[in-house]
Amino acid sequence: MGNSKTILIADDEDRMRKLVGDFLKKADFYIVEAEDGKQALDVLKDNPAIDLVILDVMMPVLDGWTVCREIRKTSMIPIIMLTARGEESDQLFGFDLGANEYVTKPFSPSVLVARVQALLRLVEENGKSKASIDLNGLVINKNAHYVSVSGHLVDLSPKEYELLLYIVENHGVALSRDQILNAVWNYDYFGDSRTVDTHIKKLRLKLGEKGEYIQTVRGFGYRFEVKNDEKLD
User: Fold this and answer.
1) 4-60 pLDDT per residue, tens
2) Which of 42, 99, 183, 205 is the most exposed place for a label (fewest CB within 10 A)?
3) Distances from the Cα of 79 to the Cαs of 95, 197, 214, 231, in angstroms?
4) Is the dihedral of CA 55, 60, 62, 65 positive or negative?
């Protein structure tokens, strides 16, 4: 990956920042640190070249949830949440706020480094792919991270956006609920199919008439399919 990539580690524990930082430095990353949530936001503001953020949830001044929410108001920088709280509800909350990964303590530093590398590769690959998808009035702009229907912006949560993009990029493919859950919510997320069903229902409602493109495959999952007289640009 090279030392051109800068990682912000925000954690109030000196020992944890050093542990994670040492492993990332060995992988040729440049490290900047913050010991509370407010400092993390200040560091991000002063260092726009930061490529990825590792956020501890339980921090003083501003907690990780608040920091994640504030970051997502202006940036889609990759975020990995680091926490001792492994409850499903916490993971769902973090993903809905816009976190890309959720790592529960205790963890393997080597595995965390691998996740950082994989997430940065994914960002780079997405950046090289087509920036905008137009489906007969349903537009997904991947650079600006917005969705519009017939010229009107659609207000999607970060997770709804990821879900839509995933099924659209697998156009015509029947995707099982487990496939969707693993791809959009992370392989280590132990949820159930109701999570997928709930988000699909919300997505259909928000997309209006374009919601019919999301078809149910009975007993299996979902497929994104544009009508025969329309096409995927």
Assistant:
1) 799 999 999 999 999 999 999 999 999 999 999 999 999 998 887 899 999 999 999
2) 205
3) 10, 25, 28, 34
4) positive
Q: How far apart are CA 222 and CA 11, in angstroms?
A: 39
Q: Is 179 helix (H, G, I), strand (E, B) or coil?
A: helix
The 10 Å Cβ neighbour count of residue 141 is 13
On the question of a cis peptide bond just before residue 106, with omega within 30 degrees of 0, the verdict is: yes
Give the max Cα distance, the chain.
60
pTM given for the model: 0.58
DSSP symbols for 46-78: H-TT--EEEEESS-SSS-HHHHHHHHHTT----
- Cα gap 214→98, rounded to integer Å: 23
User: Is 125 exposed, middle or buried (CB count within 10 Å of its CB: 0-12, 13-18, 19+)?
Assistant: exposed
Q: How far is 152 from 32, CA to CA, in rounded Å?
A: 39
| Domains within the chain, CATH numbers bracketed | 6-127 (3.40.50.2300), 130-224 (1.10.10.10)
**SS3 assignment, position 33:** strand
